[in-house]
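Supplementary material to the annual report.
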Amino acid sequence: MSLKMTLPELTAFVAAEFPQVKDDFAIDAVSEDALILRLKVGDRHLRPGGTVSGPALFGLADVAVYLMVLARIGPQALAVTTNCSIDFMRKPAAGVDVLATCRLLKLGRTLAVGDVLLRSDCHDAPVARASLTYSIPPLRA
Amino acid sequence: MSLKMTLPELTAFVAAEFPQVKDDFAIDAVSEDALILRLKVGDRHLRPGGTVSGPALFGLADVAVYLMVLARIGPQALAVTTNCSIDFMRKPAAGVDVLATCRLLKLGRTLAVGDVLLRSDCHDAPVARASLTYSIPPLRA
Amino acid sequence: MSLKMTLPELTAFVAAEFPQVKDDFAIDAVSEDALILRLKVGDRHLRPGGTVSGPALFGLADVAVYLMVLARIGPQALAVTTNCSIDFMRKPAAGVDVLATCRLLKLGRTLAVGDVLLRSDCHDAPVARASLTYSIPPLRA
Amino acid sequence: MSLKMTLPELTAFVAAEFPQVKDDFAIDAVSEDALILRLKVGDRHLRPGGTVSGPALFGLADVAVYLMVLARIGPQALAVTTNCSIDFMRKPAAGVDVLATCRLLKLGRTLAVGDVLLRSDCHDAPVARASLTYSIPPLRA
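Predicted assembly:
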């Protein structure tokens, strides 16, 4: 068991494949079964009152598990989200980034499952939790 | 049982309270237990390849249930999403809007539950399904 | 598109393969995209106070989608539940069966998705809603 | 922050209030933000082939979070499950108990959220993960 993509390789992959969102995220850490992804909060992520929007939090959780899966299987596969369950538990703190800590719970042949805790930077209490399933298509020869 | 907000009132509420997203959505229909919300798909909703992004679909489902709840309880209350479960089932069709058909399954004193089917405009097979819970804060006197 | 198993064939399949639970359930109806399953409520399904237990409701939703999938793909495949999201919305009525109305939303090569409304017999308001994903293993030659 | 019920008090509560299921479970450990609950696997929990059934795993996760909440708020309140999302990831090992490790992620005035990892005794890889929301009714004076 080992990583197929390093942190710089993952960062370069996001920049190349997802130019629309590359400025939203920074990968803070990656290991064989965990990844920390940072949402670099800007005005476009905010709802009235200055709180980070639900879709922005969803997207953060989604990309965190996606990158965790890629780190383990490599960039050749096109994984797609099939399910997400997310609980919004607290209001994000104003004016700080949100960090997603992802655990990879299962990496099967066709399905991967990860869960995520989202926290405002420098805060302990989780803003949200999410679990996601990715479908991994078979490799083509 | 009756509607506390009409379709034009809901549309005006979104324009006033959520100026960031008001151009994303149009309410196609509302009744006592159902609401149809349209995501007016633009470039900002797309992923590479031209498919509507997961966060955009999540946001559509979220706003659909939110407006369905407001239609029934009126604009005075500040409902917040506490849980969402979403299944992504098919790729949205390219170049067309996505429609969310929301059913209100429960409207309690403190919790409301709705489910949503998302379809590409003029397509039958659902792109995604979602169920959401909203927490309704007590009214202040 | 057509049914691979009729209502009597599904009933016989449950009796043969799941002798432990065959007395719990009756299939009231099946069509190409819907199935109604009845939980024949007995003491073993009840919690103190006489309400149907959460695990009994979960099992009802799970078996409803399972049988809906089998009705479409036939008994040869061994489908397994990979995900369930369930919302408990109202207390079941005392002393009556619970009915699950299942819709098949997706039947793909490897994943099937269905959703379910659970109602107490002769009651309109749903007791619970659930959505489930089944993984369908590849056929062996 | 402290525990309102100790491990022996929780065990006695289950025996008194849930006589139907008290023989199914043993509380292995409890602290302010975590609880370990053991499903003492018997024939009644098994499906054909000897694997622990889905409803038994659901019930284990449900009771684990319920007891975790009670440990913190005390036995006076009647908490009810409003939502559960569960991912079944691996077949439980045959012939051994299943352990649920619960984390309390939020304990609000009206809602509590916990998540759970289920593992076969003496095995590392999780059999399932679940997250549950409990609604906590207001105290009566």
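The two ends of chain D are 22 Å apart (CA to CA).
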